[in-house]
Design brief:
88 residues
Length: 88
């Protein structure tokens, strides 16, 4: 495994995950709008959440798959080849 590649994919995954703070922010704002009875804000924030979530999920899924392949799969290959005494 290459340290720099591993660091990059894991950092990208963390960056993607950290975007969940947007969902937290919008959820708090939605709760405030509901509590204050501001129907237009409820509608607007709900639309924002519905638009953001699929984009966020797709980005996270892509980053997760890349990170999985560069870490778990690569480590498995190295372990397997080391067990049987081969090199890639």
């Amino acid at each position: 495994m290459n340290y720099n590649e591993t660091w990059k994919v894991m950092n990208d995954l963390e960056d993607s995950f950290n975007k969940i703070s947007t969902v937290d922010f919008l959820s708090e704002k939605l709760n405030d709008a509901v509590n204050s009875g501001n129907q237009q804000d409820v509608v607007d924030i709900s639309h924002a959440l519905l638009a953001f979530l699929p984009v966020y999920q797709k980005d996270f899924d892509e980053k997760f798959q890349i990170a999985w392949k560069k870490t778990v799969v690569e480590l498995h290959k190295e372990t397997f080849f080391n067990k049987i005494g081969l090199t890639e």
